[in-house]
C-alpha cells in the first residue's frame, strides 16, 4: 500500500527553508535543522521494543585534535555482533547536512550536529542497524556502529577558525574512530560494510577506499551510500544553490587536502565534493541507494526559497502531487540527470544500484523503508534484500525504477 509521510511545518519554517541572508538567519538555521531531523529518520518514534544503544565518547581523540566543531570529543554507538556475525562489522556514518559559513557553523555548535554535549545519550537502532533478523535479515547479528557526525563537512575537513572557536576536524574524527574500532575487534573482521545516509552517504563515498585499505586483502569490504548522490544541478531560477554552498564548505573547512587527487588533479575542489565526479574512480565495490526525486535536494537545492521569491513552486515543493505539468517536467529532468551521472558507474559488475522513483531521503535507517511488509520495492524486491544480494554476491543488483508516478510502493514525504 502506498505510504505517505507528512511533516507539519510552521509557517515560519516554510518561509525560512531557503538559503537566504535575512536578519532572521537564526530562525532560518533552526528551520533547516528541523528539516534535517525529519528527513533523517527522526519522524519515526522509538517503539516499545526498540533497541537503544548508548553513546561512547572517544576519550583519546582530543589529544589527536579529533574534535567536534566546539572542541568536544566525537562519539559513536556500538552494538556487538553475535553468532555468525561476530567477526563482521557495519559502520554507519551519520548524516546531517553541512555548514558553509562561520555563522552556520557557530549555530551548528549549539546542536548535536556540532557538539557531543547535545548528542542523545542513547540512540534507537532500526533498519540496517536493527538486531532482529525479521527487520534486517543480512546484517542483524553483525557488530553495528553509528558514528556520530559533528564536523559539518562529511568527515573531510581539516582546519580551524580561532576567532570563532570553530574546529574543522572531520578527517581526524574519521581516523580516530577507525583506530578505536580496529582496536575493539574490527581489525579481525572477515567482512565489513561502510554505510552512510545523506551527508554520511557522501562521506561513505569519500572514505570508501580508505576504509578498504584498513583491512587485509582477505577481508570482504564494500560500501553503501544512501541518499548521498548530491547532484551539481541547476535550481528553478537557473542558479547553482548546492554548488555555491559546497564551495563554502570546502573553502571554510579546508576540505581540499582530503579530497581524492584522482579528481582534484582534473577538476576544482568544489567539483570534487560532488559524488558524480568521484564514483568512477572508487576501486572498492559501492552500492548507491537513492530516491530519484531526493526530498532534500528538491527542498534545498532545486527549489530553495531564494530561487522562488514569489512562491510559484511552493505547493509543488511541499507536495509533489500539486506540481503542474511543466514543474513535473523539471523534476523528471532532475531524475534523468541522476541516471546519466550513474550510467558509467553502473557498468561495473562490482557495483550495485537501487534508484527508486520516490520523493524520499535516507531509506536504510528507517525500518518502514528498509525492510517491512509494505516497504518500497523495485521488481518486488525490498531495499534490504537488494543490498544483501549485492553484498554477498548472490545476484547482481542494478535496480532502476520507471519514472514517477509508476511506483506505488513509495513512502513519499509530504510537507504541509
The low-confidence runs, each spanning 5 or more residues with pLDDT under 50, are: 8-20
**Helix-strand sequence:** EHHEEEHEEEEHEHHEHHEHHHHEHEEHEE
Q: What is the C-alpha radius of gyration, as a whole number of Å?
A: 20 Å
| Beta-strand residue fraction | 15-25%
Q: Please give the largest β-sheet.
A: 10 strands, mixed
Number of helices: 14
First and last CA, distance: 21 Å
Report helical residue fraction. 25-40%
Task: Please give the oligomerization state of what you see.
Answer: single chain
Mean pLDDT: 93
Structural class of the secondary elements? alpha/beta
What strand line-up does the widest sheet have?
5-2-3-6-4-9-10-11-12-15
Annotation, overall tally of beta strands: 16
What features would you describe in this structure?
It is globular, with a radius of gyration of 20 Å. The chain is of the alpha/beta class. The chain has helices spanning 11-15, 25-42, 102-108, 170-183, 199-206, 208-213, 241-252, 261-264, 295-302, 314-318, 325-341, 343-346, 367-370, 383-391, and strands at residues 3-7, 52-57, 75-79, 88-93, 122-124, 143-147, 159-161, 166-168, 191-197, 220-226, 286-291, 352-356, 377-378, 381-382, 398-400, 411-415. The strands form four sheets. It has a ten-stranded mixed β-sheet. It has a two-stranded parallel sheet with strand order 1-16. The model is unreliable at 8-20 (pLDDT under 50). Strand 13 and strand 14 (381-382) form a beta hairpin. It is built from 14 helices and 16 strands.
Amino acid at each position: 500500500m502506498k505510504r505517505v509521510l507528512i511533516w507539519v511545518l510552521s509557517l515560519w519554517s516554510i518561509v525560512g527553508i531557503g538559503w537566504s541572508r535575512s536578519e532572521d538567519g537564526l530562525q532560518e538555521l533552526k528551520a533547516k535543522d528541523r528539516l534535517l531531523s525529519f528527513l533523517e529518520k527522526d519522524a519515526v518514534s522509538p517503539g516499545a521494543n526498540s533497541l537503544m544503544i548508548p553513546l561512547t565518547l572517544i576519550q583519546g581523540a582530543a589529544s589527536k585534535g579529533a574534535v567536534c566543531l566546539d572542541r568536544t570529543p566525537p562519539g559513536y554507538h556500538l552494538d556487538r555482533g553475535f553468532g555468525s556475525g561476530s567477526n563482521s562489522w557495519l559502520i554507519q556514518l551519520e548524516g546531517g547536512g553541512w555548514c558553509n559559513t562561520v555563522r552556520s557553523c557557530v549555530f551548528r555548535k549549539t546542536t548535536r550536529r556540532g557538539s557531543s554535549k547535545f548528542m542523545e545519550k542513547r540512540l534507537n537502532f532500526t533498519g540496517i542497524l536493527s538486531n532482529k533478523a525479521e527487520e534486517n535479515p543480512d546484517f542483524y547479528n553483525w557488530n553495528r556502529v553509528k558514528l556520530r557526525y559533528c564536523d559539518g563537512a562529511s568527515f573531510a575537513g581539516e582546519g580551524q577558525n580561532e576567532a570563532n572557536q570553530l574546529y574543522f576536524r572531520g578527517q581526524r574524527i574519521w581516523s580516530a574512530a577507525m583506530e578505536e574500532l580496529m582496536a575493539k575487534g574490527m581489525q579481525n573482521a572477515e567482512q565489513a560494510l561502510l554505510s552512510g545516509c545523506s551527508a554520511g552517504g557522501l562521506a561513505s563515498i569519500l572514505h570508501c577506499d580508505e576504509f578498504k585499505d584498513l583491512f587485509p586483502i582477505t577481508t570482504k569490504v564494500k560500501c553503501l551510500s544512501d541518499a548521498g548522490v548530491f547532484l551539481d544541478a541547476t535550481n528553478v531560477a537557473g542558479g547553482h544553490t548546492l554548488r555555491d554552498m559546497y564551495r563554502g564548505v570546502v573553502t571554510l573547512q579546508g576540505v581540499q587536502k582530503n579530497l581524492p587527487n584522482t579528481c582534484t588533479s582534473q577538476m576544482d575542489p568544489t567539483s570534487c565534493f560532488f559524488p558524480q565526479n568521484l564514483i568512477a574512480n572508487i576501486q572498492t565495490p559501492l552500492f548507491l541507494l537513492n530516491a530519484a526525486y531526493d526530498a532534500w535536494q528538491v527542498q534545498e537545492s532545486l527549489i530553495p526559497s531564494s530561487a522562488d521569491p514569489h512562491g510559484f513552486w511552493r505547493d509543488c515543493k511541499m507536495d509533489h502531487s500539486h506540481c503542474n505539468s511543466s514543474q513535473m517536467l523539471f523534476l523528471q529532468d532532475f531524475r534523468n540527470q541522476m541516471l546519466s551521472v550513474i550510467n558509467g558507474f553502473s557498468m561495473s559488475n562490482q557495483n550495485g544500484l537501487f534508484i527508486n522513483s520516490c520523493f524520499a531521503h535516507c531509506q536504510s535507517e528507517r525500518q518502514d523503508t528498509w525492510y517491512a511488509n509494505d516497504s518500497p520495492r523495485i521488481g518486488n524486491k525490498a531495499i534490504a534484500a537488494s543490498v544483501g544480494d549485492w553484498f554477498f554476491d548472490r545476484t547482481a543488483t542494478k535496480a532502476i525504477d520507471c519514472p514517477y508516478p509508476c511506483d506505488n510502493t513509495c513512502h513519499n514525504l509530504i510537507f504541509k
